[in-house]
Write a structure and sequence with these properties.
Length: 503
Amino acid sequence: MPVTVNPAPALPRAPVGSGVRGLWVDAFGPGLKTRVQVTQMVEDAARMGVNTLFVQAIRRADCLCLKASVPRATDPDLEKGLDPLGLAVRLAHARGMRVIAWISVTGMANTAAPNTNPAHISRTHGPDSGAASWMARRADGSWQEGNDGWLDLGIPEAAEYAIQGVVSLVKNYGIDGVQLDRIRYPDGDVWGYDPKVLARYRAETGRTGTPGINDTVWQDWKRQQVTNVVRRIALEIKALRPDAWITAATITYGAPPAPGDLAAFRRTRTYGDVLQDWPAWMQSGLIDLNVLMNYKRDAVGEQGQWFDGWNAFARGVPARIDGLSAGVAAGTAMYLNGAPVTAAQAQRSVGAGLGWVGYSYRTPTLEVYGAKQTTAQGLNSLQKLLTAPGAALASPSPWKEKPPTTRGLMGRITGTPVPGFRVVEALQGGQVVAYSLTDGGGYYGFAALPPGKTEVRVSGQRWVDTVPERGVVRLPDLTVRDLKPVTTAPLPVMPAILTPARP
């Protein structure tokens, strides 16, 4: 008689990004400054069981590399002729590790360590550049946050400069993806008052006067500028390399919302203070992996519960309209904790189905940060705990997973003096499945649409094309000739919701 063999039950698919075992390598101390440092860093990471290096490339509109659209960093400790990013990619790939280029998107200047290149934007578009300044400013015109100056993403030229800096790394290096850091406004929600930004805000919204810091229309408009840049970077990179990972280092201030409670998220400082709406980025396919900057100390008050709560909230963000979900990795502050706490946080993160990334290689323990241990001592103590039997990094394996977003659609409207803030609808099967808003350059796009025939409508214009299984479709420019300013208040960024866009 024939023997019937029942097929083995399908194993559940591991959550996206759950295989990440990462290490942030910052550019503000040893690790990337010389060939010897880069070589040692890669060896140390491999010994710890790390499979992904988040290597700081663009720091403050300058690069620890030789082939970017932004100038090279003018750090006196940086070895002459060295390309730290290129060397890190070569050495890490040889060890089976991925390299994600870590970019401070809005970093622009630091008064304590200024870039000395005359072509650097802190000199051509800095605080003394008058109408050509690209700096985020308070209502009184001041621009410093500590020693730092930030780009204002509400200035289209500044946003474009930042976007092209990120894209240039993907064009010129064999990196496995990018990480967007400082993709937000500075703390305090008192920023955005450059005259050019205010003029654009009034033109796009039809509002008059100078908005107060608590004006919700003003807050929504600025938050949209941040999302616009994330969207444009994601689509430009996916057009070049669909399998490149788009990740973001995101804010988790204070107590977490309950899992699935997006309304509660909109009451957090992340949403209302630094104007970062990362759940919307996850739902609209703009990021493949959300690396939470979940910098909590287990021994301080409720911070241990907050750490677990933010992880749970991020894991509970609803899926996209194409049925896929962005991944989540817990980024832990190794410099704020002793090695036992870091190992425990890593274990809880991995146990919850998340990836794990530690900050940072240079300061791997609280004792190193407080100058009570050398970096080598801190790395050694941490490595023993992270790679012990049953620990989070005990069984190192390469992270070979592909990102959930490999396709998209993008375009631009022209012919109008007010290109930004136009509602763009995407229709499939005659139904509106998503919408987005144009940015200050007229760009729009979608990253999580199901493949197939898609109609795009904006300001009375329409175009039909096919979203492919893989790759990004660039639509021809759509000419809009109405001369009326847009008077619609900002829409919440929910392009993944299967409901008609509002007018």
